Amino acid sequence: MVQLLLGIAAVLALLQALSLFAKTEGFRGSGRLFGGVSTILIGIVLLQVTTFVLASWVLVLCGIVAVGSGARKFARRKLPQS
Length: 82
Hints:
Layout: H1 2-19, H2 25-49, H3 53-78
Helix pairs in contact: 1-2, 2-3
């Protein structure tokens, strides 16, 4: 299970890095979503395998904030400009 979560987190981190090369802001905003979910998964893995519980929860919280920020940015870019 740990290997699967780390594999998914690595793929999402790669997608986040690739989103930096995109010109459209919508895709770049989705990079924050990818990075946030990746951070959450890494925090979950650390919760399972280490005794650094506080640091793991901080990673999960940071991932949640990144996902929220990315969703907000992504949603703003999809709205018609007035």
